[in-house]
Amino acid sequence: MQKPIENLISEILELPIAEINDELEYQSAMNWDSLRHFKLMHSIEHTYGVEIDPQQIIELTSVAKIKKYINQMPAPVFPENNSSSSTTKNTSRSIIDCCEKDINSKKGNKKRDYIYRGLNGVHFDTSSITHIDGNSGLLYFRGYSISELVEKSCFEEVSHLLIYGKLPNIQELENFNMILKFSRDIPDKIVDLIYDIKDSHPMDVLRTAVSALSSFDSHYGKSSTENTLLRGIQLIAKIPTLIATHHSLRQGKQPVKPNYKLNHAANFLYMINGVEPNKDTTAIINKDLIIHADHGSCASTFVARIATSTCADIYSAISGAIGTFSGALHGGAVENVLKMVKEIGEPQNAKQYVNKLRKDNKPIMGFGHRVYRTIDPRATELYKLVVEANCGKSMSKYMEIMEGVAKEMGVYSKYGLNINVDYYSSILYRLLELPDDLAIPIFVISRVSGWVAQIVEQQSNNILIRPLLKYNGEVNKNFVVLEER
Question: Is this prediction's pTM over 0.70?
Fold first, then answer.
């Protein structure tokens, strides 16, 4: 006898059976998160002997939808379906009708207000910057595949592509590089500010310093597209200097001045280490920066566009994006992958570690993405860089741990829980002997080019971004004066 679907959902989500109603949806009250969703899909396949298509996995995001899907499967499904074929048909129809009535409420036949928690699957505007094909695992910048750009281009070219909408010719690239190189310096008072807060996390310092830069902008407050473009390019140039300055000051050293003869990637490494990097390391960082340059409407980009939609200045938009990016569910996940590897300690511990987290319904860092149903294409490119960076180095234990974790997580691959961009980013910077807590800031060095492009695009056809919240609290409450409470 097969388990009723409500009981199975209750068991997987670890919720009382009374709470399993048609209104319960994916991520509802945070009781139905991504890992539980994958476990639920896996359990439905095992219990009912079906194979759920990847597209259906994306769509089966509520109890009502799951019940409808189960009832449309060939009988027998529920225990009561065993009596006869006619009974099976009637039972299936009654449950489907029930689900439809829940969605199209009887009360006045009013249209239901759908709640898309996390704005999952919602398009808030159009964009010609970045295209993500989540089902196929493809990523394009202005129509060019990420793999081709990594192989044939440089970060400066890709930044120009994102911001101006086209690859530059020789003269355009030379002009763009000139602006970047001669915008790298930061004011002495910003250096003093960084020194005062040098014990803070690099992302906190970066957010504060970017915001403070607006005080030294003689054209602050001018919101023309030309002004936004120039300030944006200057921020792309200054952010590596801000990061490197903080890194030097917290070590008790004097900041290393930018080297105007070096390209963007090489100059950053030079300011961090005080010596010019070799060609191989520079090439790896250059490719890494291309990979991270933009990713559509991720949380930080959304914040940047929201700020821009209010006509806030570019410093506000970028500092808001940096603050958002630092979160553990966004760019901050890069650091957490390294923490996970350290916690596992030895390759033979990987299986036990993963099984324990899965049992506790806790996420495995570096796996899963809101958009991709297959491996993140950026992870594919980063893995190549990791292999290249690991050549001749004794980091085999770290790699064995990560391969062990990936193997244990393989069972969830078909449900869309695959390796994401954070997984190999973390180990790449370690291989290049860069500090662990610079992993997120390095990501920002790249992503700021995408933020600038998105800000300019928002500004060019602006509309205030103002979504709604569905109120579910009380109304018409009686106010009791202070003395009587």
Answer: yes
